[in-house]
Design brief:
Pfam families (chains A, B): Ion_trans (PF00520)
Membrane topology (chains A, B): Multi-pass membrane protein
Strand order of the largest sheet of chain A: 1-2-3
Number of helices of chain A: 31
GO molecular function, one term (chains A, B): monoatomic ion channel activity
Protein name (chains A, B): Two pore calcium channel protein 1-like
Oligomer: homodimer
Number of strands of chain A: 5
Structural class of chain A: mainly alpha
Keywords (chains A, B): Membrane, Transmembrane, Transmembrane helix
Strand content of chain A: under 5%
Distance between the termini of chain A: 50 Å
Chain lengths: 715, 715
């Protein structure tokens, strides 16, 4: 038992604290996959620690969000604010970014700073935004186009924390040449088909449903056929030709098979292929950099103590390091990690074991303390009565859980039924009562809660309670093994959807800014109870009699940033546009460009990611390290390694003496389900089998050389 | 040189012809991936050869097409024929199928025949169709529903030749369990979202654009949200909620992200995963069966002649076999194949070389005979003049080709421009003239021809000529290396699209038959110059004022089989339906079912196929065998193996003595580009790296045991 050692460390033996600081930085950089080439002087290291402090990082994001949110208050605004107010806020934000920038410049060597394109990018953006604000202030604010607003979201990409977002953009950039080849061929195909369409239909004097000539202008045909690829105008574009003759449908069938299905699949294939290829390389680099950092941390703390004179790190130093890296780690958890690494109880670990620390720290372990049931504390006699025991036994059986789930299911059906019917209404109440009773007896400690407080008179509240309880059904589905892999994938891609969310925000923001300048005020929305005669055609006489106005799409406009975002969302789903009628035919360029960027590129990357994540979830199982950690935890639960359990319990002095007999230990660990993983973790796991072996061999290279940022300096 | 041997074979040495018949059957079965368990008695083998004759196979397909085409003439008909006529034709078709069936039963052992589900399937279909025809004839033909027509396309699947189609169906069937799990979760998600929608929007008294209450009926909501997944009703379904409050869009954004994007990607992932997994297994089986058949052919012809007493096949026997398998093969081609197999000029080949024959035969080799230019023959002095030589030199340069392509490109632009303008019109003529001149001097032997005949007065003909010449642009694009991989994939998937085409025809046919029974006559189409007042609402008062009628979709009906197919195509692209208005709400089931079968399953399989084909094209290069064949051909061209060339030329007695000097041999081979491959070949190549090694080892198993049909008997 190395327990005494770990306690003596607790008393803080005077180590060379600078070395520990540096080692801490290396380990936490490895853990969070940071790749900043910082100065290793003690002062710079302390500055770097401050730079990476969660509060500072949060602050940067707060300022970015404020800066982006300014679009809500600037003309065209949702809530208009005077120009001096928005400008002041923007200048404050810019100052904050500048301070952060200066801080960063102090942390890394000067020459590295000026070589990193992302810094130069930020500086350029800052100065441009600054200049435009100045210009806008000088001008009376009426004719000044705040075109620098387009650059704002780029800050989100270029701040140090935007690693994942930068990776996504790099992934797009890498796929671009391949995509462009396919795109060229695709456009070539569209152009040739358009030419054929012109020759086939142009001279027949056909009319569209609006009464305008059908397929007579080449550029119009190109646009119409491009939109057909998005399936937005699917039967409409074909109808005049079809009404004329059945044989013309052959043209459209060919077009749809070749362009809508085959070429769109090609885009997906190219994106998927590139996604796999480049991402794998990036993750490989990431793993390499991480290992290299851990090796450097190891070399800072190593001693030559082992049998063969090999360098090792003692448990004392390791404990101190872990405490610095993760200050709020419980002693028990730390001991668990040590016992995983030091499998043979030597009291020190070698390099290969040490390197695993970063991975181990990113596996979330929950310390579970078994608490007695409240009834057991207050009324021990009642709790231990035979009736109570029978209830507890019943509750633990599977049948009971099924019955419980069934009631929820029945309940869900009742919610869907017409609730005006008193029978249904009463049935719902019965369900609620049943459920409350069951919940009490189950003493369910899970995430599904019950609004047991008052205020039940309001129907609306009851509805919300019902809906929340329907979510309970997900658990029912999750308990079926077949569905778990699917739900696991769903949950795992959650964090990545956040990265895609950021990506989408950046792209949407840029398009929204451009769209607002182009189309603001062209389409007006009138409240439903308005009596204005303009309501019929969205306030623009050009829209009189168009489908756009008829379908009441008036709120689909670019009059403020919120509605712009919603229009762009609609364009993502189906690329329909009624904006050419109110401006100019060239407005189509905006919509085609948006379709290329968002649907062809970003959505395909999203699909590629889901495809790969799904295939990984189906083919791979847990990682090696996690398996060994789980095995250790299982051993603990089975009481095999009881020495460790006892030790932990005596350390964790909040706990009383452990219960005797065959009862389970009161302190237990649980891996916080394989679901709560970081994006990097998931990516790493995707290519784990390929990476696992090669990189350990490569790590035998010289250690103390400076490693450049292999991945992130090439934006 | 084994030349004398091959010539002596030519004189037809008396071999045991039965053995050769059987070996021929084995080799051609291996070549075409047939997997029929036939009787090996000489009589049955001869029957089997007849069964596989191309004429018999073609005849079956002709009858199938006639049988399927009957839908054009049966009520509801495109061209109505009396019921006795269609019934007679159908009975003739059914008799043909029966004859084919009996023939098949004679070829294979009786017990195998009754165990094969596809035969039983055909018999059942035949009897049912027969019964219904009888019934329809007995009844006066008015109230009889010809429901057996739904079964007709199944004949296409179950005939012996429908191998690829059966494989596609098996691939679907194998993916079904996995798809159904995802589908269950997807439907669960849709149902939960619908419940939330009901609670969120149901009580607010919102109205849709038609003025009907918005989101008040649970089943309507489920349907609307399901359609939202197909993106068909994208902004419309959201607009009332959006007009009420911006915050409600959060619900739709969540819904679209989860259901439209994530779940639809899951479907693709599941289909893709299964596609890869099962197809690989099937192709493995296919390769195994093929090798096994070749081994059997080998054991029929083998002699113990080699050094170590190993069994070999002599060139004489081999030549005879190849002539039987491929009667129209040129002697030169045969010699080429032999020289590839018998690399060391031994005069006999072992088993491993023999097995490759089936693969070698499926590589198409073109024999090119260099012919002198016609001018060279008629006016040798003109041809050899310095001017002519200069022209010939010029024409061969790259620059010239580029200029030629540029002219076509400019021409294409002119076609797109307004041709009423006389300048443009003249320019077009100039282009044509240029091109004719260039073509003459180029003496282009390629596929792109020029309508040089008269009749140029008609504008329409000129247009067609122009369009045909625009196709020439594809060659221009193809000459750029970057695009070739993409175009290669496009061309390669061509034959497979035919399989998918058959699959689509089967599914469409079934849905069209059902759709016609459900919706025939509900929607009427009136010719544009009709004056009927019903025209406005497609002849059905229920459609008065609906968007369906307004957008003039009247021709989208189920009134005959052609328009049914077109409606189904439109539903594939965008699942919009106006048929619930004219019939019943339950008609939606038809459309949802169609969407599930066609879009979720078949289209995804198509996308999965293209994805895989594209990735293969990008990652793999030629197969080993093809490489060795190509190497041999290159050697021939370089004159390394001149002995062989001389031999071939002296055999091919149409040719004069070969030219002397360093000129290229006048007889050359070309592999007919890697593009013209069979579907099976492409599939095999997809998994070649995995298959290449394992199967050669497995082939050491006992040879003469009966092998069952591993793949095709499990329909």
């Amino acid at each position: 038992m190395d327990l005494t050692v770990s306690i003596s460390v607790h008393k803080s033996v005077p180590f060379l604290s600078d070395k520990f600081d540096l080692a801490t930085v290396y380990v936490s950089d490895a853990q969070y996959n940071r790749n900043i080439f910082f100065d290793t002087s003690p002062q710079a290291v302390r500055l770097y620690l401050l730079y990476n402090h969660w509060f500072m990082q949060m602050l940067v994001y707060v300022f970015i969000i404020i800066n982006l949110a300014l679009a809500l208050f600037e003309d065209p605004a949702v809530v208009p604010l005077p120009i001096w107010a928005t400008s002041t806020i923007e200048i404050i934000c810019l100052s904050a970014f500048t301070v952060r920038m200066v801080h960063y410049a102090k942390v890394i060597p000067r020459d590295k700073f000026w070589k990193d394109p992302k810094n130069i990018c930020i500086i350029v953006i800052l100065s441009f935004i600054d200049l435009t604000i100045y210009g806008a202030l000088k001008a009376t604010g009426y004719f000044a186009i705040r075109w620098s607003r387009v650059l704002r979201p780029l800050l989100l990409v270029n701040v140090t924390e935007g690693r994942q977002l930068r990776r996504a953009f790099r992934s797009i950039r890498n796929a671009l040449p391949q995509i462009s080849y396919v795109f060229f061929l695709f456009m070539f195909s569209v152009l040739v088909f358009s030419l054929m369409a012109l020759k086939l239909f142009g001279k027949r004097g056909l009319l569209t449903i609006d009464g305008s000539p059908y397929f007579t202008n080449y550029l119009d045909i190109v646009f119409d056929l491009y939109v057909l690829v998005t399936t937005a105008n699917s039967p409409d574009v074909m109808m005049p030709a079809y009404n004329y003759s059945v044989f013309f449908t052959v043209f459209f069938i060919l077009y749809i098979v070749i362009n809508t299905y085959t070429f769109m699949s090609f885009f997906l294939a190219v994106v998927y292929n590139n996604y796999k290829k480049y991402l794998k390389e990036e993750v490989r680099q990431l793993v390499k950099a991480r290992r290299s950092k851990m090796c450097r941390a190891f070399s800072l703390l190593q001693e030559t103590r082992g049998e063969g004179g090999e360098p090792v790190v003692t448990q004392a130093k390791w404990n101190h390091l872990v405490k610095l890296v993760k200050p709020n780690i419980s002693i028990a958890h730390r001991e668990l990690l040590w016992s995983v690494l030091d499998d043979q109880n030597k009291g020190h670990i070698g390099k290969i074991a040490f390197v695993q620390l970063a991975d181990l720290l990113s596996i979330q372990v929950i310390t579970v303390k078994s608490q007695p049931h409240p009834i057991q504390i207050c009324f021990p006699s009642v709790y231990n009565s035979s009736v109570s025991r029978f209830i507890r036994y019943m509750v633990r059986t599977r049948v009971f859980v099924y019955v419980y789930d069934l009631i929820i299911l029945v309940n869900a059906v009742f919610i869907g039924l017409d609730e005006e019917n008193p029978v249904v209404s009463n049935a719902e109440w019965d369900c609620v009562l049943y459920e409350i009773l069951l919940s009490l007896s189950l003493h369910l400690n899970d995430q599904f809660f019950l609004f047991a407080a008052g205020g039940y008179t309001s129907r609306q509240i009851l509805d919300i309670v019902f809906i929340l309880r329907v979510v309970r059904l997900i658990r029912l589905v999750d308990s079926i093994k077949r569905f778990r892999a699917i739900i696991n994938t769903l949950i795992k891609i959650g964090p990545t959807i956040l990265t895609f969310g950021q990506l989408i925000v950046v792209v949407y923001y840029i398009f929204a800014m451009v769209g607002m300048e182009l189309f603001k005020g062209k389409v007006q929305f009138f409240e439903p109870n308005s009596t204005s005669p303009d309501q019929e055609y969205c306030g623009n006489p050009l829209l009189k009699g168009t489908t756009f106005a008829k379908l009441n799409y008036c709120k689909n406009n670019f009059n403020n940033v919120v509605s712009s975002f919603i229009v762009l969302l609609e364009l993502t789903v189906v690329n329909q546009c009624g904006f050419t009628a109110v401006t100019h035919v060239s407005a189509r360029i905006f919509f085609v460009l948006f379709h290329i960027v968002v649907v062809i590129i970003i959505i395909n990357i999203f699909v590629a990611f889901i495809l790969e994540a799904f295939l990984v979830e189906y083919t791979f199982d847990k990682s090696d390290l996690q398996t060994s950690l789980e095995k250790k935890i299982e051993e603990l639960e089975d009481g095999v390694d009881t020495g460790l359990v006892d030790a932990m319990e005596s350390i964790d002095n909040e706990l009383g003496p452990s219960e005797t007999g065959k009862q389970k230990p009161s302190l237990m660990f649980k891996i916080a389900s394989r679901r709560s993983r970081t994006v990097d973790g998931l990516l790493q796991r995707m290519f784990e089998t390929d990476l696992r072996h090669e990189d350990f061999n490569e790590e035998e290279e010289p250690e103390n050389i400076n490693f450049s940022n292999p991945v992130f300096d090439s934006v």
